[in-house]
């Protein structure tokens, strides 16, 4: 039995609330159970210096956790004077995932910054950030179309992420913290809406796992991402 009482194939209750920030060009509050991440998209009419005059745009991401996102207070990284390696790795993953489905040439020399701020953490924050970040990005692009800055939304597909793991010997979908902290193995899967692989991160936490177990995790992840991309389409009012 999972601590939450969920079946192995069930996601936590998921909600994606679009337009939660009145200032950002795009925004989404992603809730994966008790993990809540605020994703905002900021449009800048310039690109990094190394990309100037190249005719291509850029999508990048920043990630951070509020001090009481977890059971005990954690100092803001700004007060420490540097980001942790974990933070840098997660925000690079978010940026890679969103760029994987963005037509940077069609975007032109525009940069979009996706800020993912974890309000409350209970496992799967990077996956919630990618899933909500896509919604915020789409909303920002749609705003640019409305303003006549670009002709169409420069996205080639959807993208979403979900975690899976081996808990008490069983493959389970969408780990919360209680499962993640006790899992034999855990993995993060990022897929496009059409089922293509963007990234897989899989680690044995207790003992090695075999290919059959990995394929069980892969199958669960595909099911989970199918549900998440359906929800993305629903909240964005896409056919």
TrEMBL record:
Q: What's its catalytic activity?
A: tRNA(n+1) + phosphate = tRNA(n) + a ribonucleoside 5'-diphosphate
Give the first-level EC class, as a single word.
Answer: transferase
Q: Which Pfam families match?
A: RNase_PH, RNase_PH_C
SUPFAM superfamilies the record matches: Ribonuclease PH domain 2-like (SSF55666), Ribosomal protein S5 domain 2-like (SSF54211)
Q: What is its EC number?
A: 2.7.7.56
Q: Which GO terms describe its biological process?
A: rRNA 3'-end processing; rRNA catabolic process; tRNA processing
Q: Which CDD domains match?
A: RNase_PH_bact (cd11362)
Annotated residues for binding of phosphate: 86, 124-126
Q: Which UniProt keywords apply?
A: Nucleotidyltransferase, RNA-binding, rRNA processing, Transferase, tRNA processing, tRNA-binding
Q: Name all Exoribonuclease phosphorolytic domain ranges.
A: 11-140, 157-224
Does this entry carry the keyword Mitochondrion? no
InterPro entries assigned to the protein according to its UniProt record, in alphabetical order: ExoRNase_PH_dom1, ExoRNase_PH_dom2, ExoRNase_PH_dom2_sf, PNPase/RNase_PH_dom_sf, Ribosomal_Su5_D2-typ_SF, RNase_PH, RNase_PH_bac-type, RNase_PH_CS
Q: MF terms per GO, please?
A: 3'-5'-RNA exonuclease activity; tRNA binding; tRNA nucleotidyltransferase activity
Q: Which domain of life is it from?
A: Bacteria
Gene3D superfamilies found in the cross-reference section: GHMP Kinase, N-terminal domain (3.30.230.70)
Q: How does it assemble?
A: Homohexameric ring arranged as a trimer of dimers.
Q: Which family does it belong to?
A: Belongs to the RNase PH family.
The role this protein plays is: Phosphorolytic 3'-5' exoribonuclease that plays an important role in tRNA 3'-end maturation. Removes nucleotide residues following the 3'-CCA terminus of tRNAs; can also add nucleotides to the ends of RNA molecules by using nucleoside diphosphates as substrates, but this may not be physiologically important. Probably plays a role in initiation of 16S rRNA degradation (leading to ribosome degradation) during starvation.
Q: What is this protein called?
A: Ribonuclease PH
Q: Lineage of the source organism? A: Bacteria, Pseudomonadati, Pseudomonadota, Alphaproteobacteria, Rhodospirillales
């Amino acid at each position: 039995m999972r601590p939450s009482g969920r079946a192995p194939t069930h996601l936590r209750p998921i909600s994606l609330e679009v337009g939660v920030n009145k200032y950002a060009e795009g925004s989404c509050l992603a809730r994966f159970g008790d993990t809540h991440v605020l994703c905002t998209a900021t449009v800048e009419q310039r690109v990094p210096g190394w990309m100037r005059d190249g005719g291509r745009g850029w999508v990048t991401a920043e990630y951070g956790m509020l001090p009481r996102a977890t059971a005990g207070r954690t100092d803001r990284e700004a007060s420490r004077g540097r980001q942790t390696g974990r933070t840098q790795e997660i925000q690079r993953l978010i940026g890679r995932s969103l760029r994987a489905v963005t037509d940077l040439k069609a975007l032109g020399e525009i940069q979009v910054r996706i800020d993912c701020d974890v309000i409350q953490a209970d496992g799967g924050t990077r996956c919630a950030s990618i899933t909500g970040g896509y919604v915020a990005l789409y909303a920002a692009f749609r705003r640019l179309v409305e303003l006549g800055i670009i002709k169409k939304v420069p996205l080639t597909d959807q993208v979403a992420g979900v975690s899976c793991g081996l808990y008490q010997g069983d493959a389970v979908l969408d780990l919360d913290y209680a499962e993640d902290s006790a899992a034999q193995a855990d993995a993060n899967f990022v897929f496009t809406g059409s089922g293509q692989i963007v990234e897989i991160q899989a680690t044995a936490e207790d003992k090695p796992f075999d290919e059959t177990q990995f394929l069980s995790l892969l199958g669960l992840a595909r099911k989970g991402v199918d549900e998440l991309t359906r929800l993305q389409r629903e909240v964005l009012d896409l056919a």
